[in-house]
Structure formats: structure tokens, C-alpha cells
Design brief:
Blueprint (H helix, E strand, L loop, with lengths): L1 E6 L5 H8 L4 E7 L4 H8 L5 E6 H11 L4 E7 L12 E7 L10 E6 L4 H14 L3 E5 L5 H6 L5 E6 L3 H5 L2 E9 L2 E6 L7 H12 L7 H7 L1 H17 L3 H21 L4 H30 L1
Parallel strand pairs: 1-2, 1-3, 6-7, 6-8
Antiparallel strand pairs: 3-10, 4-10, 5-8, 5-9
């Protein structure tokens, strides 16, 4: 029997009810969507627990906690024809009569506090790398009101139908993250190696999974290249060991997707390193031999 922790979200209600029909559950508890990952983490230590929430909220939790003992066990496409992108999307918003290039280098950005780390990873760090100086404001909601009252220049928040954005004279400067529905659960501990990850990536590329992020990256080379460049910047700007570990894991993933898409195998990389190593040793031997001959 399973205890379900589900998001108290009217937009998710119908989909959650459909999901629950597939499971034999003993109990359902409704909490705020952002609290679902934490409760799954804590309760799964002693009980059989899974949770349903938005992927955006789980990613924010993961970025905050660096916790890997729970993860996504199933992703369900969030398709709502009334939404601009058919699903909720975290976006950078600004004045509708301007573009980002028109904005000053000193910016005040109002960020919904639910997406503090996700906004940092997908946007504010990148803007700072482009020499923008940013003052960040983190309200718990009503981000557009901060823009309306001239407290902020830009807004980062979730866009669904886009009506609120239009009401306040804002437009989308950049879509940062699209959110599907995710079922969370305890992650099975497996020994990790790059070969297994590379096999998983290759299987995604040849699968019929139309919502696979890996497949989306491979089919959009400009996006994949941009992600590699962005992640390289994240590695350089990481300030702690935990941040470095997180960013290295990200860049390794994107590089492996790029390898797979270009039909390059890990074996070919190993062979190239072996060739370089052999060449280095040969050069070293030749240098030593040459030095001995000069001494003679």
C-alpha cells in the first residue's frame, strides 16, 4: 500500500485523480506543491511514500538540498490547451515595449521565492556573466505588482495562460524552464559509471519518448550547444564544493548527449587518450635519449 503526498493545486486536481486510479493507495495527503518533495524525502525513510507535484518545484527542491535519495520515478506530460506553452513555464518577463538589450546593465529583478535557485541556474547567473549587475527581490507572490510599482525592472515567475502578464504590460523575454507533472519516490541506489549513463542517453535518443529532455536536446543542436556553454560558465562561477559537484554532473551529462548525437563512442575517447599518452611517453623517451647524446 502506498501513501500519496499530492500538491494542493486546482490546476493539477484532475490529473492527480487520474494518476491515483492507477495505484492501490492507503492514504492521500494534500500539501503545498513545494512541500511535496521534502515530505516524500522524510516519510520515505520509514514508509512506502510517493508524491505528485510540478517538475519546477521538484527541481527547485533538488537545487536547494542537493538531495539524491529521492527522484522522478515517472514524468507525465502536462498538456493544457489554455496555457501558452501547453504547460506552466518559468519565464523572464519585461516591459512589452522593450527587449532585454534595451534594459540597463544595473537591474532589479523580482523573482518568485519558490524559484530562487531555479532562476539563478537558468537566468540570473547567466545575466551576471554578461556583466549585468543584479539586485534580486524575492516575494512569495504578486511579482507583477513589484514591476507595476516600479520596484523592479524585470520579473521571473511562472506563466500559464499569460493573462496576468498582459494585464501588467509585460511580455516574455525568455522561456527558462517548462514544467511537467512528476511522480516522486525513493531512488534505488545503483553504482554509477559513465558507461551506464551513456547507454541510457543513447537509448533515449532511439526511443519513441516524445517528452524526453535528452531527445529534445539532441534534436535542437543550438540549444544543446548553448547548454554546454552555460554549464561551463556555471562550473567556473561555482563557489562551493557542493556547487562544483552539481555543475560538473550537469556538464558531463550535456557533453555525453553531444557525443551520442555526433555518433562518437566513449571507446573512441579512451583510444584518443591512449594515443596521446603513448605520444607523450615517446616524446619523453626521445627527449631523454637526445639529452644523453648531447652529454656524450
Amino acid at each position: 500500500m502506498i501513501i500519496f503526498i499530492v500538491a494542493k493545486n486546482s490546476g493539477l486536481k484532475e490529473k492527480i485523480n487520474e494518476i491515483l486510479l492507477e495505484y492501490n493507495f492507503s492514504e492521500v495527503t494534500e500539501v503545498r506543491g513545494e512541500d511535496v518533495p521534502f515530505l516524500v524525502l522524510e516519510l520515505s525513510k520509514t514508509k512506502n511514500v510517493v508524491g505528485i507535484t510540478g517538475e519546477d518545484l521538484f527541481r527547485e527542491f533538488a537545487l536547494n538540498s542537493r538531495e539524491d535519495s529521492i527522484g522522478i520515478i515517472k514524468r507525465i506530460k502536462w498538456k493544457d490547451e489554455n496555457f501558452l506553452f501547453k504547460k506552466p513555464a518559468l519565464c523572464l518577463l519585461g516591459p512589452k515595449d522593450k527587449n532585454l538589450s534595451d534594459m540597463p546593465k544595473n537591474l532589479k529583478i523580482c523573482i518568485n521565492s519558490k524559484y530562487k535557485e531555479l532562476a539563478k541556474k537558468t537566468c540570473t547567473n547567466l545575466l551576471e556573466n554578461r556583466n549585468y549587475k543584479i539586485e534580486k527581490i524575492y516575494p512569495s507572490g504578486t511579482t507583477e505588482e513589484f514591476y507595476k510599482n516600479n520596484i523592479s525592472d524585470l520579473v521571473i515567475d511562472i506563466v500559464c495562460t499569460g493573462k496576468s502578464m498582459e494585464k501588467y504590460g509585460l511580455k516574455i523575454y525568455e522561456k527558462l524552464f517548462e514544467s511537467d507533472i512528476v511522480i516522486l519516490g525513493k531512488r534505488e541506489r545503483k553504482k554509477f559509471n559513465f558507461e551506464e549513463l551513456f547507454k541510457m542517453i543513447n537509448s533515449k535518443l532511439t526511443s519513441d519518448d516524445k517528452i524526453s529532455y535528452t531527445k529534445k536536446l539532441a534534436e535542437n543542436k543550438p540549444l544543446l550547444k548553448r547548454k554546454i556553454i552555460e554549464e561551463a560558465g556555471e562550473v567556473i562561477t561555482a563557489e562551493t564544493k557542493d556547487e562544483l559537484i552539481w555543475e560538473f554532473a550537469d556538464i558531463f551529462y550535456f557533453l555525453l548527449v553531444y557525443l551520442a548525437e555526433n555518433n562518437i563512442t566513449l571507446e573512441e575517447i579512451y583510444k584518443e587518450n591512449q594515443r596521446r599518452n603513448k605520444e607523450t611517453l615517446l616524446n619523453k623517451d626521445n627527449l631523454i635519449k637526445s639529452s644523453k647524446e648531447e652529454i656524450k
